Amino acid sequence: MPLRAVTGHRPLIKLLARAVSRGTLPPTLLFAGPEGVGKRTVALALAQAINCETPEQTPVSSKGDDRSEFDACGVCQNCKRIERRLHSEVLLVEPNDKGHISVDQVREVSRQAQYRPFEGRTRVVILDQADRLRPEAQSALLKILEEPPSASVIILVSSRPDALFPTVLSRCPRLRFGRLTAAEVAELLVRDHGYGEGDAHSVAVTADGSLGLALRLDSDDLASARECASRSLHSSATTTDSKRRLAAIKELFKEFVERKSPSATREAFALMLQAMMSLLRDIGLVNSRADRKALANSDLESELTQLAADYDDGSDRVLNAFSSVDQALDALTVRNANPKIVADWLMLQL
């Protein structure tokens, strides 16, 4: 997929295209941002632009043209092989069966990077979910980042960059990817995944700007997660009594989150936390008197207005609540904490 075909992230894409055109692309990059918004897609499109045999050049002076200044043709042999993940110079490194990127995977990348590219001009190494790098793997990667091999570009893709060593972060210029709009998510669902417009819209408004999230779960799962998040926020806003809060989350957990298997329960709870973060962002927007067109949960505007009033106590309550949910999500997904313990802790923090 050429850069011009990527949905969203136009400023970042134009910046990358300009860097490739001028030969100023850094040898190491970190694509950071929410899960499922297209960071890996952009990395692969960038690999095409770098190695395309017949790249397209768009005049910078062109007005009203949303195309990138420099882009892959999308039809040459290199572009086709990269699209099909068959190009020997584009290495996509992903977590193994244990959910981690091992030191052996990094050492293999290091070994291949010592040779000059044969099939393309530049070797592109993409470490997807780089936050899953084991500590020893990060140490091995650091040696590569300190002295990047010639004719190579290394791209780390992560939704949780803070899980990486500070020394790794310091060697990779960070590009911050934002969330897609609900309209962009709906467009992708219709165009690429066969959704009808109605279903696409109902899923998109609850997917918190993440195509990945929209594809993983159906609209019923997302709606349940959002209802559980909303009721949890309402319970915490209406009482300071610890026993009542814990009783409320216990009931909500049993109704909306608990599943037959531990892994399904963990996934459902992670989805609820993501929905809660989305609601808290919207509550912050309402309280700051921002344009309500930016609301991710625009169909819940009246409910958000009530929650915003409940949370507008003159302190940084919304910001603190958002931080607590982020910590809970980190404990659940990175440190493998017990979901019920995390739920109880969070309810006392909101």
Description:
With 350 residues, the chain is α/β, with parallel strands linked by helices. It folds into two domains: 3-176, P-loop containing nucleotide triphosphate hydrolases (Rossmann fold, 3-Layer(aba) Sandwich), CATH 3.40.50.300; 217-349, Zinc Finger, Delta Prime, domain 3 (Up-down Bundle), CATH 1.20.272. Helix content is 53%, strand content 8%. The protein contains 15 helices and seven strands. The chain has helices at residues 10-22, 39-51, 77-83, 103-113, 135-146, 166-169, 182-193, 197-204, 211-216, 219-238, 242-257, 262-287, 301-311, 317-333, 339-349; strands at 28-32, 56-57, 70-71, 90-93, 123-128, 152-158, 174-176. The strands form two sheets. It has a five-stranded parallel sheet with strand order 4-5-6-1-7, with helices on both faces. A two-stranded antiparallel sheet has the order 2-3. Strand 5, helix 5 and strand 6 (152-158) form a beta-alpha-beta unit. Helix 1 runs parallel beside helix 2 (39-51), helix 12 (262-287) packs across helix 13 and helix 14 (317-333) packs antiparallel against helix 15. The longest helix has 26 residues, at 262-287. The two termini are 43 Å apart. The model has no long low-confidence stretch (mean pLDDT 88).
Say what the CATH topology of the largest domain is: Rossmann fold
Top CATH class of the largest domain: Alpha Beta
Proportion of helical residues: 40-55%
Low-pLDDT ranges: none
The ordered H/E elements are: HEHEEHEHEHEHEHHHHHHHHH
Q: Count all strands and give the number.
A: 7
The largest sheet, given as strand count, sense and whether it forms a barrel, is: 5 strands, parallel
The rounded Rg comes to 22 Å
Total count of helical runs of at least 4 residues:
15
Tell the overall outline: globular
Beta-strand content: 5-15%
Give the second-level CATH assignment, the architecture of the largest domain.
Answer: 3-Layer(aba) Sandwich
Q: Largest beta sheet: what is the strand line-up?
A: 4-5-6-1-7
- Can you give the mean pLDDT? 88
Secondary-structure class: alpha/beta
The structural domain count equals: 2
CATH superfamily of the largest domain: P-loop containing nucleotide triphosphate hydrolases
Our measurement of the CA-to-CA distance between the termini, rounded to an integer number of angstroms, reads: 43 Å
